[in-house]
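TASK: fixed-backbone design
INPUT:
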């Protein structure tokens, strides 16, 4: 199999864009390499020179998506290192919304994977995502505990689990609202404040 990176950037972009479209519009089982070929305007043999199977192509697209997510997370983490926990959490919510808005097709692939098991390697991928989330959110929670912004006796693992679950569900709902053109009725600012308040003050 030839290295994909040897292709011209223009041809790489065509294949990647066609693949993202295919995997975002269809579930894994019905996604077609033939459709990718047609959308990219390349020969079938050319695509198979770089991706022998649909699984290999899907994993390549998933890794690109994960790289985009990591860049967003790294950016907000670094820019908010000195912010109090509530402001930091608010920025995380904002960055999630920004990612969905700028990359709706990648977001669709991500949410389908997480909530429907739409991948032959779902367990491996979900474990990787969970590990990334535990590391990222765990560091932010730990910083807040060290600074006395959160109870230092909190169970960090449970706190990260709850926070990750709520953020994922919120962003999924926002993504679905955006797909239906009703995101303006979805008050993201109020929801962001609500999530932040819940994790800083509880239900009281």
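OUTPUT:
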């Amino acid at each position: 199999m030839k290295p994909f990176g040897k292709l011209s950037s223009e041809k790489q972009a065509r294949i990647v864009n066609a693949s993202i479209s295919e995997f975002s519009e269809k579930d894994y089982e019905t996604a077609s390499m033939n459709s990718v070929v047609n959308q990219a305007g390349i020969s079938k043999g050319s695509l198979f020179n770089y991706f022998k199977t649909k699984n290999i192509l899907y994993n390549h697209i998933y890794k690109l998506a994960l790289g985009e997510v990591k860049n967003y997370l790294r950016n907000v983490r670094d820019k908010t290192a000195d912010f109090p926990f509530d402001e930091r959490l608010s920025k995380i919510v904002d960055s999630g919304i920004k990612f969905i808005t700028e990359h709706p097709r990648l977001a669709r692939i991500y949410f389908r994977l997480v909530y429907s098991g739409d991948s032959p390697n779902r367990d491996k991928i979900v474990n990787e995502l969970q590990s990334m989330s535990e590391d990222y959110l765990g560091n932010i929670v730990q910083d807040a505990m060290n600074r006395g912004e959160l109870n230092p006796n909190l169970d960090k693992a449970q706190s990260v689990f709850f926070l990750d679950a709520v953020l994922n569900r919120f962003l999924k709902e926002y993504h679905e609202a955006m797909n239906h053109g009703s995101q303006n009725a979805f008050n993201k600012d109020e929801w962001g404040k609500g999530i932040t308040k819940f994790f800083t003050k509880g239900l009281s």
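COMMENT: Residues 166 and 175 are 14 Å apart (CA to CA).
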